[in-house]
Specification:
Chains A, B: GO terms for molecular function: L-serine hydro-lyase (adding indole, L-tryptophan-forming) activity; pyridoxal phosphate binding; tryptophan synthase activity. 2 copies of one chain form a homodimer. By secondary structure, the first copy, chain A, is an alpha/beta fold. Helices cover 41% and strands 16% of the residues of chain A. Chain A has a domain of 268 residues: Rossmann fold (3-Layer(aba) Sandwich). The mean pLDDT of chain A is 95.
């Protein structure tokens, strides 16, 4: 009849007590963050207009284990520890010799891994006496997750949502508003950055880079307001390591160990979350677990970008970080995995890639949706378009193992469910979904505009 | 800082081994089901065109505990035992002296309690050699849940979806199709029932009663095809009792006992699921736990309907059951809790109401959405519009306890999340949501057409 459901669930007291900081184990420190004006390394004071000191300290921390405050663990309890499943039905459908495990982060109230960091950020800001957070969001997963966390800690939130998504994803917007956040289409007339862009191009449909500029500009102006980012930065990836820490313990429960660990990568947060504890174990214990980041072929930061200093935003308000980038002025084509549509990549993930500690692959969206449908019919969970990239890579690994007659243990992060993304599935079924190609000339132009540093 | 998250999670081996059959404890048997033609009590053979024998046996079973087959418990493992939460943050927001607990069924892959029965129904049909299931769906929760279960057991599914919802809820339809089901707008030209209605009224926008007629008609025609219903019938409510059985054990973990148990009621399935184990305990142990069904004021089956024999569908193809009904030809006004928009009520729930074993209240949709937003901002979970009725009633109980200075322990079933229903929240925020009133003349006309039995 049905094949066995195999779920590994940790008890509540196994929610990690510390986040894992990969910097402590790296053979070489990442390059420093530079001030956008002076191009000299930033100090904590430079970041204070944007973040509370506790978060700045985490951004530059070098100790391996960083304690998770009790009030944060307490909120985590609502959905953590998140389940780890063995995909027995999918294995059977593929006829593979491989074992496939997935860590499911869609059990959070906003349906993705993002609350792992939004709860921590809301907590530290509340502790610092902050009243309001500003942020940007693309497809809306991050905006919803910050709005959720802020509602629990009694903080106001203004979300600058990429205008094209604001129109296309009214339901994510409604979720933010349900949590009490204010959602503004970006570019807006509320900021200098937004007004400047609208003057030049009243029809501008926005980008993550523009929305970041707006959110950063407003946070910097007020003492009671700070900025929150949902990916890319060190402290964000730090908070996400609960994914990998739990998964490693659950794999032990399953009496298995991963040969390959897979995560989709946009800014790098769920990828870093599942991968960093495994990269750290490789480094400390001389293990050889393969680590694979999966990105969209239409926005291939790790596989086609340059490793260089760049801005995180369009208006060049953010500090400069050394990362894989397609150039801050690069505009990726529209595709459904909005959470992977960013020109840059986490500096820590980029650094690991440069050090040869991980691989990266890219896939087109049609093959990813096809994999997601196969997964849903076997496992019952509908992946978010972002997560479908990890699903595709896991299936490719399983089929490769089958072809080679190898046993192989595959672990991937299913970072969120697709209940808010069913239009994408509708397009897929109606044959309207097309693979998108970035504009090579645009990429070269964006890369030629990278800031000249050092 | 944040108030404590209190979650009670049972280990996997505490998934119930049996469903609870309330018939065993009732002081009086419910009235028999009648054949639509002869108006004589039906026997198993009369139901065979629609259901496999294992389900027919459950429909008429009188023993208290009915074993859950291992393959069904195995699929339940994917999300069960479902969590029970204490709503500490909501209690604080209300300033109430009451304790509020909620059993959360939105953790299933389709986001509601419906898979508790769809998995069982898919299993029994597969065991009986059935190839295809037909069913109806309104807002789509049931259709998605049956499609999910059928995909795991390798059954085909044809879902007749109320035409107005088919247009308004394309994302639920996309979810059904992702699970491999075929979704047809009802009334359709695929059935005699559908064609007849379209001939009389080509613009007919459908109803649950019509969609049931279509699904039943097709199932009855083919030996390899059976019909599956998502609510109302005894076996469906039986399967849902895992909700209440688990909740009762979790309340013991919390060292608490419910003074009042609340569920929203459309056809009665999540309500019966949480309430029947408590009604049974009242009967067996002489306890006095209050049981409250909550229905929409615009479709007030229990509070304004007649207790009489009626058809479950419009074309009068179903057997006659004695239940609270607004009349099979009654057309409720459009409101957002599509899952509560049905003219009838579970015969078992109706019987309990007639025996004085439970109460019923009704609320309008605007006050329910207002309660749902307050709940989401305190507890982080966005309720489905149907579930918002239970939330509203729980808040009303908590405020009543506060006014009276009473300690009171409230348990309610949060039957699903609202991630597919954000248009309703958008309408609420934009002030477009209005309370709907049913047409009293229409109700009287529908009641006057009740079949003349005995």
């Amino acid at each position: 009849m049905s094949d066995e459901t195999v779920k590994y669930l940790l008890p509540e007291n196994r929610i990690p007590k510390s986040w894992y900081n990969i910097v402590a184990d790296l053979p070489q420190m990442p390059e420093p963050v530079l001030h956008p004006g002076t191009k000299q390394p930033v100090g904590p004071a430079d970041l204070e207009p944007l973040f509370p000191m506790a978060i700045i300290e985490q951004e530059v921390a070098t100790e391996r284990d960083i304690e998770i405050p009790e009030p944060v663990r307490d909120v985590y309890k609502q959905w953590r520890p998140a389940p780890l499943y063995r995909a027995r039905r999918l294995e059977k459908a593929l006829g593979t010799t491989a074992k496939i495990f997935y860590k499911y982060e869609g059990v959070s109230p906003s349906g993705s891994h993002k609350p792992n960091t939004s709860v921590a950020q809301a907590f530290y800001n509340k502790e610092a006496g902050i009243k309001k957070l500003t942020t940007e969001t693309g497809a809306g997963q991050w905006g919803c997750s910050l709005a959720f966390a802020a509602s629990l800690f009694g903080l106001e939130v203004d979300v600058y949502m990429v205008k094209v998504s604001y129109g296309q994803k009214p339901y994510r917007r409604a979720l933010m508003e349900t949590y009490g956040a204010r959602c503004v289409a970006s570019p807006s007339t509320e900021t200098n950055a937004g007004r400047k862009i609208l003057e030049e191009d009243p029809e501008n449909r926005g980008s993550l880079g523009i929305a970041i500029s707006e959110a950063v500009e407003l946070a910097a102006q007020r003492d009671d307001t700070k900025y929150a980012l949902g990916s890319v930065l060190n402290h964000v990836l730090l908070h996400q390591t609960v994914i990998g820490i739990e998964a490693m313990e659950q794999m032990e429960m399953a009496d298995a160990d991963a040969d390959v660990v897979i995560g989709c990568a946009g800014g790098g947060s769920n990828f870093g979350g599942i991968a960093f504890p495994y990269i750290g174990r490789n480094l400390r214990e001389g293990k050889n677990t393969r680590i694979v980041a999966v990105e969209p072929a239409a926005c291939p930061t790790l596989t086609r970008g340059t490793f260089a200093y760049d801005f995180g935003d369009t208006a060049q308000l953010t500090p400069l970080t050394k990362m894989h980038t397609l150039g801050a002025s690069f505009m990726p084509p529209g595709f459904h995995a909005g959470g992977l549509r960013y020109h840059g990549m986490s500096p820590l993930v980029s650094h690991c890639k440069e050090l040869g500690l991980m691989d990266a692959v890219s896939y087109n969206q049609v093959e990813c949706f096809s994999a997601a449908v196969q997964f849903a019919q076997a496992e019952g969970i509908v992946p978010a378009p972002e997560s479908s990239h990890a699903v595709k890579a896991a299936i490719a690994e399983a089929l490769d193992a089958k072809e080679k007659g190898e046993e192989r243990t595959i672990l991937f992060c299913l970072s969120g469910h697709g209940h808010f993304d069913m239009q994408a599935y509708t397009d897929f079924f109606e044959g309207k979904l097309e693979d998108k190609t970035y504009d090579e000339a645009l990429l070269q132009e964006a890369l030629s505009k990278l800031p000249n540093v050092g």
